[in-house]
Amino acid sequence: MRGWNDLGVVETIYEEEHEDYSSASPSLSPTPSSPPATLHSTVRSWSLTHGCETDVIIHVQDSCFHLHKDPLIRRSGYLKRQLTDASEITICPPLNIAAETFTLVGEFCYSKHVVITVFNVVALRTAAESLEMTGNNGDGGHNLSQITESYFRHAISVNLEYATILFRSSLSLLPEGKETAVLASRCIEALALMNGGDGNVSWVDEIKTVGAENFKSVADSMHRRFSQSHDLLYRIVDFYLKEHTGKLTEEDRTEICSFVDCNKLSSHLLMHAVQNPRMPLRFIVRAMLLEQLNTRRAIFSAAQRRQNSTHHNQRAPTLSSILHRDAALRQVAQLKAAMDATTSHIQNLETNLDGVKKLLTESARFPTGNSLENKIQRGEKGYSSSRSFQSCLSTEGNARAKIEKSIGRRLMSGLTIAFRGLKSQRRSKSGVLSAVNVDGDENGVSIMICENGLPCHRRSRSLF
After folding, report:
1. N or C, which end of the chain is more exposed by having fewer CB within 10 Å?
2. In whole angstroms, how far apart are CA 426 and each of 302, 340, 434?
3. Are 103 and 115 in contact (CB under 8 A)?
4. What is the rounded distance in angstroms from the CA atom of residue 182 to the CA atom of residue 190?
5. Each residue of 195-248: pLDDT tens digit?
6. Under a CB-based contact definition with an 8 Å cutoff, are residues 78 and 135 in contact?
7. Best CA proximity match to 288, nearest among 331, 230, 342
8. pLDDT score of 337 more than 80
9. Helix (H) or strand (E) holding 88
């Protein structure tokens, strides 16, 4: 890890912690100096130098800034547009910029100097993007966006403490534009690397406080940044769903999980996703189909390697090698049929689930038990009729409750059993089974597995 003194930054940056420091060199070697001039003093000095008074008023939250138009429009494209035909504007709202942050922005507009610390760099970086302080302004100097980006990039790599501070600052500014979500995802990436991949991840607890919409923004940014592997994104999504059990709608859960690309998950996490009850059904089905595809590729690859090895070691094919090759080809065809049957079962489960939902929706249209009981109590029905209706209503309510509770459990059980049936077909020492017999009926799938040198056995599993 590099120390704070090793940070390379441009000369316009000052560091202020317990004392005020400045540096005229590219590195931040702490040398005591006088505190930087406040914005009020800077504006006053500018008025005396140029012989003109302030001519614009800018409202930020509960503060009012009397400033000069010329230095502002040279540094900010946003302020240039807003002050074209007006001398008094309000920027917060609509922008999420604190008065303290705008004070630093104002100082930079006047003097090209700004006080940056690990605690305010995220706010300044976001403000620079919102105020469009990205141009070179024709003076060859660095703009505020470049300066804050350089500071952020170096500070995030110093140590775990600084990266955590930056991460918290990013979360507190959500949802102020896409830039904040990008900064948060960069912090997550840095924190994961500092923890050695899967170590002390107490910083993840900060995610629990993020709302669903803000979390979607961060997940979307991570989806775009993590081009090679989505293992970290999957773990964070799973943690968020666990901490918000019962608090998210099905639409929110589905959209959040859509940012995880199953093709970029490692094999063990893909297996975990298939059996994860927190994941929505659509995501589980997608992960299961991908696992089937990977299994098929592995079998084809093993068969091909074995065939190539046979051709290499033997000049002429023997009867044994021909039979073994034919058995491997039959196994591939039978496994494909089994996987197609599993896919069909999954589709039937989804169809049945939709049917149950429609049934529950239609049953909800009938008169409720309270209305019938009121009629019965008013004397419209006899005593025996009343007890009959109440019994029917009670039975119907209990049946409906049982159906609702068992839908998810039966569905997940069926998916798990179907997947385990496929998994058992790969348990061979040589990687290729001698023969596989698959029989399907309306109750489930029956699989006969014969391994080299081992007795045959038949497994019969039902999806329910």
Report:
1. N
2. 11, 17, 11
3. no
4. 12
5. 877 656 678 888 888 999 999 999 999 999 998 999 999 999 999 999 999 999
6. no
7. 342
8. no
9. strand 88-92
